[in-house]
Design goal:
The complex is a heterodimer of chains A (125) and B (564). In chain A, 29% of the residues lie in helices and 45% in strands. Chain A has 125 residues and is an alpha+beta fold. Chain A has two domains: 72 residues, Alpha-Beta Plaits (2-Layer Sandwich); 42 residues. In chain A, the strands form two sheets. Chain A has a four-stranded antiparallel beta sheet, covered by helices on one side. In chain A, strand 5 and strand 6 form a beta hairpin. Chain A is globular. Helices cover 37% and strands 17% of the residues of chain B. In chain B, strand 4, helix 2 and strand 5 form a beta-alpha-beta unit. In chain B, the strands form five sheets. In chain B, strands 5-4-6-7-9-8 form a six-stranded parallel beta sheet, sandwiched between helices. A six-stranded parallel beta sheet of chain B has the order 13-12-11-14-15-16, sandwiched between helices. Chain B has a six-stranded parallel beta sheet with strand order 18-17-19-20-22-21, with helices on both faces. Chain B has three domains: 177 residues, 3-Layer(aba) Sandwich (Rossmann fold); 155 residues, 3-Layer(aba) Sandwich (Rossmann fold); 173 residues, Thiamin diphosphate (ThDP)-binding fold, Pyr/PP domains (Rossmann fold, 3-Layer(aba) Sandwich). The chains are: A alpha+beta (125), B alpha/beta (564). At the A-B interface, helix 1 and helix 2 of A face strand 8 of B.
Chain lengths: 125, 564
Amino acid sequence: MPSALEIRLCGGLLALNRLSMTLQNKRMPVEGLTLARNGAEVRVTVVLDCEGETARRYAALLSGLEDVSEAGVVADLEEVALVRADGRCEAVSGSPEYVERWLAENEVEDAVRLGPVARPGKGAC
Amino acid sequence: MENTAFGIEYRPRTGSEAMCEALLDEGVEFLFGYPGGAIMPFYDALVDYPLKHVLVRHEQAAAHAADGYARATGKVGVCVATSGPGATNLVTGLATAYMDSVPLVAITGQVGRAAMGKDAFQETNVTGMTLPVTKHSFLVEEPEELYPTMRRAFAIARSGRPGPVLVDVPKDVQFAAVSGNGYRQLREAPPPIPAPALEAAARLIERARRPIILAGHGVTLSGAELELRMLAERCGIPVSTTLLGISCFPDDHPLNIGMPGMHGAASVNRAIDRSDLLIAVGMRFDDRITGNPEKFAPNAKVIHIDVDPSEMGKVVRPTVGIVADAKLALGGVLNHLRKSPECGAWREELAVDQAPERRKEAEARGRFGPVRIMEAIREATGGEVRLVTDVGQHQMWAARHFRYTRPNSHITSGGLGTMGFALPAAMGVALACPEESVWVVAGDGGIQMNIQELATIRDLGLNIKVAVINNGYLGMVRQWQQFFHNRRYSETPITGPDYETLAAAYGLTGRTVREGDDVERVVRWAEEREGFTILDFHIDPEQNVYPMIPSGMSVAEMIEEDDA
């Protein structure tokens, strides 16, 4: 059962380097990683192939990094897909399962998926 | 610029001066380093400040010396190097400190900002390459950030679980004028320990019948030796110290049962196997202790005390986890204890199992070899010594057979296992504790890795004694080849210099000691003479360290001397 973490970073590219190095260095089972931002703060959502307890331990480890202002396990994920269909660009949003289903049921020329990310105001942080 | 009102010349502070002021404000006394092009402005400023710089002969030694200083004092060690190869030479030392949670600040020069990213002469991305082996790293690109960054680096290095922090400073930033400091505070203090966790730990201890305390480096780092002793004595619980925990609990205490793990005492490993409660304090269940974690301590509940929350459940899932400084946590547990566990029978059982090992050790003290050498050092120093060991067979002999009775008297590279650590680390120890006896125990492989530091030792007149346990092999690797590779000794026979002659070339003194020589007399001679002395003990080339649990195996697969 995958688990997701939301990590909020300050510190720019070096902070991101340190985070990705730590994910790799500690051999965290990363299935997906999405970057987003709110102002200067970078928000990283990491989907891990592990149980919740292990994910909480990884969150504790990541929260010890100096560039990480907050890190925690998230329950609610959101995904946005920018879809090109009939010559127009549209946005589809919802849970990752909903977006997956929508894309399967609709004919699209191309899609860019932004996420999954922690749902604003409902994440762990 | 001239201040026209008072006729006083006003010179703006430079980045380098701000760095020196930050070091002074942090109470730094010694820096260990090596100058070079990109760090020259800092070295220029250094002359005007009351900071003592130790010029090592290789940057790796600077990091190890700062590490030794930090381990001996509990303060933050500081090392300095230039950009490029100077910085990369620090990496092994940083990784050593990172693995053993030692607070260091490493200052590196960097090429000027305009040259960065252009493959300039002696440019390396040292912040990038040290990401996995530092607690944090800074590239200071604004002169105004220098002072606050330096202060923050120290705060990060010593806070929570200590570790190394790198501050990389471009040359033009060191030259630039700065004002103000704008020191930012670190995060808030950690929250208090939840009472339910302490309560649960206390109840587990009270109900245990076969408890063992596993004491690690965290006990020394937090200064929790007294609390550890109070818990052990109040409850009568046997204490086993990990490699880095050695000396946090006196070896001559009747409750000390010795070191666990791959080369730990067989009786300790068997005891852990039968234990019903492990109280793990400031240790991280290293693979050298657990072997196969699935088979480790199969009958035991576990109380795990560690300041690093990410250690909880990393290897062994605790029954009760307490994320806290060891001193606070042990004090809290003691306050919640209502009675002591009934474990007298357990102590008697352990004593019976230990008896044959103690007889063998006593016999070994009478024969020429590492056990006798350890005993001779102990007798000559009266136990009043800081023993700094390198990595390999001798490290295990020193861990197992030297009797440590003073807190923090055993210093070694545990997690990374860095050969070449001991000699430079001892320089830091000797500078930190000038009135104390400092002995290095090293193999003939490791001692050659930083042997150039004899020049530094001579220059400083350091009173360090070295015992080279010389078997003409990279002994631990040879032992593994003997056990697991059918005695094919591939590239493990190793030669070395005549250490007497080598020492003389550096203006120092040495002696060669062979079987038949009076070990006690020569060790006493070395201890009593003022100044550096190296003793080269030629021991049985194929002497092994027993017992041994093969990597990833369990106590059931332990190789004991009688089986080999």
